[in-house]
Amino acid sequence: MAAFVAKQMVGNKLNAVKGAVGGDDDGDDKEKEEEAERERLEAIREAEERRKEKHRKMEEEREKMRQEIRDKYNIKKKEEVVDPLQEEPNPLMRKKKTPEELAREAEAEEEDEFTKLKNTIETQVNELKTQIESKCVMQ
Predict the structure, then answer these.
(1) Tens of pLDDT, residues 8-50
(2) Span 62-72, mean pLDDT?
């Protein structure tokens, strides 16, 4: 990837010199820049995948060593209910919510507040009812 970045930097300087000299290939330059950008993003994505795979393998090796120690000293493993597939993804890479999803969330939030208000009113009415009943004695 470092070679690609260096090549891209040299290419950008070369393009700047061509532009100063008077190159009129704007359409071709834009296509080349877009292609270079796509390649750069792909290289970044691949590097990130390799990094994640490397760390996953390292964690597997660590867990294997931990298990050997647990077995040697008869230690029970603490059970955690963490699903590795449901880890919080990078917030910059998350999927954007659609307007329908946002509307549903807002509706659920309003409904929740309505339910809270309803419960509050019901409890107040019940309190008043018990107060009145305690003060009124039927003979």
Answers:
(1) 655 666 566 555 555 555 678 999 999 999 999 999 999 999 9
(2) 94
Distance of alpha carbon 77 from alpha carbon 129, whole angstroms: 54
CB 36 within 8 A of CB 11: yes
- H-helix or E-strand spanning residue 67: helix 26-73
Q: Which two tokens stand for residue 126?
A: 């019940």
Q: Phi, psi at residue 81, to the nearest 5°?
A: -100, 60
22: left (phi over 0), alpha (psi -120 to 50) or beta: left
* Euclidean distance between CA atoms 114 and 63, whole angstroms: 48
Residue-wise pLDDT for 73-103, tens only, equals 998 888 766 555 555 556 667 777 888 888 8
* Distance, CA of 118 to CA of 131 (rounded, Å): 20
Q: Give the gyration radius of the chain's Cα atoms.
A: 32
43 by Cβ neighbours in 10 Å (0-12 / 13-18 / 19+) ranks as middle
CA distance linking residue 113 with residue 3, whole number of Å? 57
